[in-house]
Amino acid sequence: MPPMTLRRLLDHLYDAAAYLAALFMVGTLAMVLIGIIERLLYFHVPGTDAYAGYCTAAAGFLALAHTLKRGEHIRVTLVLEHVPLRAQRPLELWSLSAGTALAALFAFYSVRLAVQSWQFNDISTANDATALWIPQLTMALGTVVLLIALADELVLEWQGARQKKIPAETLRSE
Fold first, then answer.
1. For residue 127, what pLDDT band results from cuts at 50, 70 and 90?
2. What angle do CA 18, 21, 22 make, to 5 degrees?
3. Torsion angle of alpha carbons 62, 16, 103, 27, nearest 10°?
4. Which of 73, 86, 99 is CA-nearest to residue 152?
5. Beta-carbon count within 10 A of 1 CB
6. How far apart are CA 129 and CA 28, in angstroms?
7. Chain-wide mean pLDDT for the chain?
8. What is the DSSP string of the chain?
9. Which of 13, 40, 66, 80 has the smallest number of Cβ neighbours within 10 A?
10. 2-14 pLDDT, tens per residue?
């Protein structure tokens, strides 16, 4: 696969995960609004609190890779700013390597949790009685896409092709 095609494929993957995260944010809003309306009109829809939680978790995990690729993750640059230029790249490589390794463990155990919940037919203890592998699937997907994004950043840094993105908000100081 040509590099440009792979780059486009990865960018589409990160964007698709972000759009899915946005959809789950709308789901969270819908569940909260249903909860408010049901209290005002004195009726009950079982599971709205649990579904709002599932949607919130899904949105958070699915947005991780897109946030990383846009340079929006919180980074402690205090150390990097105060080391010599020749030490900055090795520190970046080390931090991206450590992050990739941790993301690999996180992805492995997230996928394993979802598979085990499916195998054991694990059900939510809330009144929605949802099969837990369903919301855990979004966590597993989000961590796998984060692993891909971190590995992507590590390869780009190794090749010297990584573009460091500085969010506009960090450029302003008050």
1. confident
2. 90
3. 10
4. 99
5. 7
6. 18
7. 91
8. --HHHHHHHHHHHHHHHHHHHHHHHHHHHHHHHHHHHHHHTT---TTHHHHHHHHHHHHHHHTHHHHHHTT-S----HHHHTS-HHHHHHHHHHHHHHHHHHHHHHHHHHHHHHHHHHHTT-B-SSTT--BTHHHHHHHHHHHHHHHHHHHHHHHHHHHT-PPPP--HHHH---
9. 40
10. 667 999 999 999 9
* CA 8/CA 3 separation, integer angstroms: 9
pLDDT > 70? residue 108: yes
Q: Report, as an integer, the average pLDDT of 41-47.
A: 92
Residues facing 82 on adjacent strands: none
Indicate if the pLDDT at residue 173 is higher than 90.
Answer: no
Find the largest Cα–Cα distance for the chain: 66
* Angstrom distance (rounded) from CA 132 to CA 121: 8
Distance CA 122, CA 131 (A): 6
Q: Which of 124, 138, 127, 113 is nearest to 55 (CA)?
A: 138
